[in-house]
Amino acid sequence: MTPEEKLALIKINAFNYLRTDWLERLLEIFGSGQEILKQTPKTLSEEGKISLETAEYFLKSALELDAEKEIENTAKVGGHIYIKGEEGYPEEFLNIKEPPLVIYVRGELTTNLAPTVAIVGTRKITPYGRRATTKLAGDLAEAGVIIVSGLARGIDSVAHAEAVKRKKPTWALIGTGIGRCYPAENKELALGIIENGGAIISEYPFMTSPLAQHFPRRNRLIAALSRVAVIVEGEVKSGALITAKMALEQGLDVFAVPGPIDSPTSGGPNKLIKEGAGICLDARDIIDALPVNIKSTLKTQEIYKEKEEVSDLSPEEAKIIEAIGTGESTIDELSVKLNMDVPSLSTILFSLEVSGYLRCEDGKYSKAKI
Amino acid sequence: MLASVLSSAIKALEGFIVKVEIDIAGGAPTFTIVGLPEQEVKEAKDRVQAAIRNSGFDFPLRKITVNLVPAEIKKTGTHFDLPIALGILAASGALSNLAQNKLSEMVFIGELGLNGKVHACAGVLPMLISLRRTGTKKAVIPLANKEEGEFAEVPNFGASSLKEVVDLLEGKILFHQEYQSPKVEENLEGFDLKEDFSEVKGQALAKRALEIAAAGGHNVLMIGTPGTGKSMLAKRFSSILPPLTKEEMLEILQIYSVCRMLGKGKKIFQRPFREPHHTISNIALIGGGANPKPGEASLAHNGILFLDEFAEFSRNSLEVLREPLETFKVTIARAKDTLTFPAKFTLIAAMNPCPCGYHGHPVKTCNCTPVQISRYKSKVSGPLLDRIDLTVNLNPVNYKDWQAKSEGETSAQIRERVIKARKIQEERFKNSKTTANAFMTVSEIKKYCPLPEGGGEILELAMKKLGLSARSLDKILKTARTIADLEGSKNIKKEHIIEVMQYRPLDRKGVSDI
Q: For chain A, percent helix, then strand, then coil, each to nearest 5?
């Protein structure tokens, strides 16, 4: 591919599209990106059988995008732009419906034989979802699995963070341009992903802002790069379920983490289980679903080892953990339940929190570990 | 003929003597007031004219000039009616020599009605108090302001009509030298606070936070869904504060006097509790206006400023509160003049956890998106939050707790501990301007808040594991100092620092958000 053609294709990719089936048609008709850019909206609309408005908008966005600047900016953050079919462009994308024409990658992306598992879920994470994701993603990353997710708030972020914490690679397929961080609070996490050999991948131009229609679309890419998909938490109508649908369409094994039947955020996984998805109770369920040749590259001894229950908690600490159970408790509730005053409860809760047994959010304590 | 009568005027909360000069000369009948009178002072002309006629005197139909000395300071208020009327009577020869003599011994304050009655007016108390400072003058004030006038402890006469004042000057009525001193101390000590902490069920953490706030003068932010008792707790906060001292009460009374908020029978023996609505304008909140008046911040002086729906206040309103929170006063700077109103209050702020209010509610579902929630929370961040040492999350009390028979501690019990802790602080800061732990300077923190053994490790852990920011370190130490004082402990202990972590939930950002 000539450099000019690459620039032309990067320009063509500027369009904020919902569907792109016609884009391939145009490329077939006109032969190259450069050729397309020379056409008038009218010819594009007639030849490509798209509406005139779409053609006008498409050409306008394409011509406005400065492709050289795109390459320059991407290089500045240590990233690359890959065109479909070019070396470095993941083969996995070629097998899906509407493969991205161009992808922007920050970090390292080697998809061949990668032990990848998608862990996705709701942004409205519950303490239960957090515990489950922490445990699952932690164990999988420890074994060498590359966690694939979407860098959204909630489950996605927790899953990525567990891999980063262990200095393992993890891949984030994001719905904005790679020049942006959305949500902004994930800036540090995004850096962690890059620093630990992971990758941030997007099919949108460098500075694309978070637009609602982009997020469901990128879910097909999460599914494409993964061998197994796990849905931890998500409402019945949610992005996580879209990912599950895409994963099923692409022939992946889909697993769901069961949850309480009255928890809205477990509605999605529970429904998937009812419809026949695999039940994921721990990392072993997922590892077992990976192809043998990939499974053999993982360090799975730890995961399969039956662990003895050792508790290093003091009787008082154990009492508090028991009182909190699987739910959430405020310090007020604990003080009534255990008949302790606020100052002395604070001391124990603090030590449990810093040692990672408990988590406190908005004044409510919940278990942080399974 | 020339006459002069003494009166008083107010600048901010300070009274000063104003000499009202009246000249009656021949010529076409006119009536002019000079000496920078504001609109309400100019209108005295018509009131005075009618009041004199309707009190049975003749109004001189000649050229009348009234001058208010010092003439370069703006005069506001309706209380110049009485001295102007008396001056006109004196200058027109309607008063006897005896009355003329007596006229110069007194200061006159009062608004006149058309029928000659003396009406209440604003600022009587600070004007009388300034008399106390400038010399021993007797004062004639409106009868309706008599009650507040007593607090000034200056000989005063409560007049009900112009006629009565003339009778007083003519010697037909006696000026009672003795004033009834309101038994201030007794009233303050024994004041019965109707609302008690024991009426609030559950919320042990919030109650504890308020106790610490009361003991150390800290500001508090309460975050909780509607119906968790935020307002209820705030309203009862004054019941655990130490009783007002006489000086504090006088300061409050003067502010309320200027704002005409001291009606008959309205006594202030309790710390004020002000709860302005979040739509309040900056001026109403902080004070100001064309003729600067104290705002809510000053009306809450020595008491509590409760800002419910904290996040709904405009950023600008919150910004202007920074000055009183840092300097305990409000300064209104004008090209010509700078006025200062005291504004030392405890800020109690309350807000919902999210725009709809139900984030984290056990039963009701919250409809807010995570973005909305974090945007809502970030509205209160920044410089003002830096002045708030204690933050607590309140959660709905479940029915079982609510039903529980055991009543919590009464306000009196908590107040006793608060007073003890305050005594310790009084001793600590006896040679300093600081009055409570919350207001310690950096060097005082260094001196009085040494970290206990192992305290440094705790803070380090908290920063690393809970994402506590380093900028909150001073606040943690100040609060820990108060907790130690409540316990009567000489030094800050490890557990005091740990307890403070409970009151810094908003600091736990970043790390735990992932």
A: 50, 15, 40
pLDDT at B405 over 60: no
- Interchain CB distance below 8 Å, B393 and A124: no
Which of the residues A342, A355, A358 would you substitute to probe the B interface, choosing the one with the greatest number of B C-beta atoms within 10 Å?
A: A342
DSSP annotation string for B219-273: -EEEEE-TTSSHHHHHHTGGGGSPPPPHHHHHHHHHHHHHTT---TT----S--E
CB neighbourhood size of A339 (10 A)? 7
Tokens of B47: 């009131």
- CB-nearest partner of A363 from B392, B397, B512: B392
Q: Are residues A290 and A323 in the same domain?
A: no
Number of residues that this document lists for chain B: 514
Confidence (pLDDT) at B512: 38
CATH domain B190-196+223-408 topology: Rossmann fold (3.40.50)
In this prediction the ipTM stands at: 0.75
- Chain B: give the shortest CA distance to residue A358, in Å: 11
Angstrom distances, CA of residue B127 to CA of A1, B6, B370: 91, 12, 56
Q: Report pTM.
A: 0.82
CATH code, domain carrying A350: 1.10.10.10
A296 and A329 within one domain? no
Give me B10's structure tokens.
Answer: 């107010």
Residue B406 has pLDDT above 70, yes or no: no
Query: How is the beta sheet containing A328-330 ordered, strand by strand?
Result: A328-330, A364-367, A358-361
The stretch B95-121 carries a mean pLDDT of: 93
HEC letters along A81-131: EEECCCCCCCHHHHHCCCCCCEEEEEECCCCCCCCEEEEECCCCCCHHHHH
Chain A residues near residue B462 by CB distance under 8 angstroms? 350, 354
Q: Residue for token digits 């004041």? A: B191
Beta bridge partners of A104: A81, A202
- Please tell me which of the candidates B204, B401, B466 has its beta carbon nearest to residue A342: B204
Write the DSSP symbol of residue A144: T
CA distances from A67 to A16, A215, A217, B345 (A): 15, 23, 23, 60
The β-bridge partners of B342 are B329
